[in-house]
Each structure stands twice: as structure tokens, then as C-alpha cells.
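Good morning,

Attaching, inline, the C-alpha cells for the sequence recovery test we're adding to the shared suite. The designed sequence is right after.
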């Protein structure tokens, strides 16, 4: 995966058109589906995670309890800034995307030199982490986590690799009333995300001087989604156990509704509508599975951390 990542970056500079198509219409659209199956599938091979963990095992500094909410807010902020920027520059400029990906890779590597294991990037400021938490809350299969064997307790609470269910609850501040969880960074993200995705697909490419159009439209959709979710959750007294799977399914369903036909069309292939419905059916199956779980059991493949957490070596 590191070689693929390096090849992508080189490709963005030397063959930007085909590389941008491969990235935005093949590689990226595969990720949400893998998150529904189990986030370990991606987190186990993600090249940024590899870079983040390359030199980080022996570091003393860990992601402490008081930092998790702050770093989560930074990651969510990065996501909400970077995704609309696709319409401005990243969908069409291989150079800018290549430079940005290189900078993020160096950031992941550098934070690994300071903070233990995934505590500096993957479990803190990675912009993909909130999406992984939302879509990975009810994995369809169990999967091992060989990267963290044994667990070095790099993250004080809510590690997604240890227990997706607990990770989600921790991200919501362990609160169940809408008045409390909607105020957490992850609560805002989860409630706004379906609208965020809908807003993204409602605009075309925008010239950089008109950046406020892209951000304004996507922000409007996000705020509408946030307000509607907060209202329905309060009015219908929806529990987070019911609401979070629905929000996850809505977000990923909206994504594939638009992204599936676009992916095949980008290569001149037919069958986009069929692929759309296949993926929507897959999301529906995942939602039924997630709603059946009133409380998510811990992963059967938790690394040795569960034992270590009870009897930490540090
Ligand atoms: S399993 Fe342990 S070492 Fe791995 S990311 Fe989670 S807390 Fe860190």
C-alpha cells in the first residue's frame, strides 16, 4: 500500500488525468463499503497509518483523555474544509492533490515520531476517523488488528480498533440525551454529515475566487441536516442506538446514490444505475444489522489490549 500510495503521488504529477480518475472514481468510493464491513480492513493497510506507526512504538507520549475531544474536533474541521475543496481544486489539479497528500503523509510520519502508535494521527486528527467511526459502528464481520499486537495503549479512551461500539459512545461523551450528545464534536458531525454529503453532490466544480459558493452551499445543507436531526431526535425521543445507525446509513446511502453512477460513467461504462441499487441494498442490509444490535458487543478479535487495559504495563 505504501508503494501504491507513492505511485499515486507520482501519477498525480506525471499522469494527472488518469490518476485523478482512479483515485476519485475507484479507490475512494471503495472505502465507505469497507468501513461498513469492518474498518479494520482499511485501518490495517492504510498507508498513512503505516507511516504514522513506523517510528512510534516506543514513544512515551500518548493521546490522553483530555485531548481526544479536541483532536476529534480538529479532524472533523479538516474533513469539513478538505472535502468541499475537491470542487475548487482537488478534483481537477493533480499537482495540488499530490502536494497535499505528500504533506499529510509527512504529518502522519512526523506525529508518529512524537506520539505513540496511532495516538498522534490515526486516532486523533485524521479527517477520515469520524467517518470510520460513523460507518464502522456495527461491523458486519470480525477482523483482527495485527498492527496493534500487542496494544501499547496509545489512546486513553475510545480507540476504534479496540471496540467500535465503545468508541462511538466515547465520541458522544457517553451521553444518550440529544441535548448532551448533539453538543459534542462527533454529535455535530454525525447529525450534519448526511446533509454535508448531499450538499457536496449538489454543486459542480467552482472557480477558486468563488470558494464561498462551494462552502456556503455545503454548509447550508449541513446545518439543515443538523437542525432536522436535532429536532427529530428530541421530538421522537430517539436513542443514539437507533439514530446513529440511521445517520450512518443515510450518509453512505446518499454517497453511493451519486458516486456509483459517476464512477462507472467516468470510464464510459454502463450499469451505473444497477450499481447504485446494489450498493443501496447493501447499505440497507447493514442498517438492518446495525439496528438489530441494541448494544454493540465488543469485537471478538480485540487485541490483547483488553487484558492490558485492566492491567496496564505503564
Ligand atoms: S489498539 Fe491499542 S495501540 Fe492500537 S490504536 Fe488502539 S489503543 Fe493504540
Amino acid at each position: 500500500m505504501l508503494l501504491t500510495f507513492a505511485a499515486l503521488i507520482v501519477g498525480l504529477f506525471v499522469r494527472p488525468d488518469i490518476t485523478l480518475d482512479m483515485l476519485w472514481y475507484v479507490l475512494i468510493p471503495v472505502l465507505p463499503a469497507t468501513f461498513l464491513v469492518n474498518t479494520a480492513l482499511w485501518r490495517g493497510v492504510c498507508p498513512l497509518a503505516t507511516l504514522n506507526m513506523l517510528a512510534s512504538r516506543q514513544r512515551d507520549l500518548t493521546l490522553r483523555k483530555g485531548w481526544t475531544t479536541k483532536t476529534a474536533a480538529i479532524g472533523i474541521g479538516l474533513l469539513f474544509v478538505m472535502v468541499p475543496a475537491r470542487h475548487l481544486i482537488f478534483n481537477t489539479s493533480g499537482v495540488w492533490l499530490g502536494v497535499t497528500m505528500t504533506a499529510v503523509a509527512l504529518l502522519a510520519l512526523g506525529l508518529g515520531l512524537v506520539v505513540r502508535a496511532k495516538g498522534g494521527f490515526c486516532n486523533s486528527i485524521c479527517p477520515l476517523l469520524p467517518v470510520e467511526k460513523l460507518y464502522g459502528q456495527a461491523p458486519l464481520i470480525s477482523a483482527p488488528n495485527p498492527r496493534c499486537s500487542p496494544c501499547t495503549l496509545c489512546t486513553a479512551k475510545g480507540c476504534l480498533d479496540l471496540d467500535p461500539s465503545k468508541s462511538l459512545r466515547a465520541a458522544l461523551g457517553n451521553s444518550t440525551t440529544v441535548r448532551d450528545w448533539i453538543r459534542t464534536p462527533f454529535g455535530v458531525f454525525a447529525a450534519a454529515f448526511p446533509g454535508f454529503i448531499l450538499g457536496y453532490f449538489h454543486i459542480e466544480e467552482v472557480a477558486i475566487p468563488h470558494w464561498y459558493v462551494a462552502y456556503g452551499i455545503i454548509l447550508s445543507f449541513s446545518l439543515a441536516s443538523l437542525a432536522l436531526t436535532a429536532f427529530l431526535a428530541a421530538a421522537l425521543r430517539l436513542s443514539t442506538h437507533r439514530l446513529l445507525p440511521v445517520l450512518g446509513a443515510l450518509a453512505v446511502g446518499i454517497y453511493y446514490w451519486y458516486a456509483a453512477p459517476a464512477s462507472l460513467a467516468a470510464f464510459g461504462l454502463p450499469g451505473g444505475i444497477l450499481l447504485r441499487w446494489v450498493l443501496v441494498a447493501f447499505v440497507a442490509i447493514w442498517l438492518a444489522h446495525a439496528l438489530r444490535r441494541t448494544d454493540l458487543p465488543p469485537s471478538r478479535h480485540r487485541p490483547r489490549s483488553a487484558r492490558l487495559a485492566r492491567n496496564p504495563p505503564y
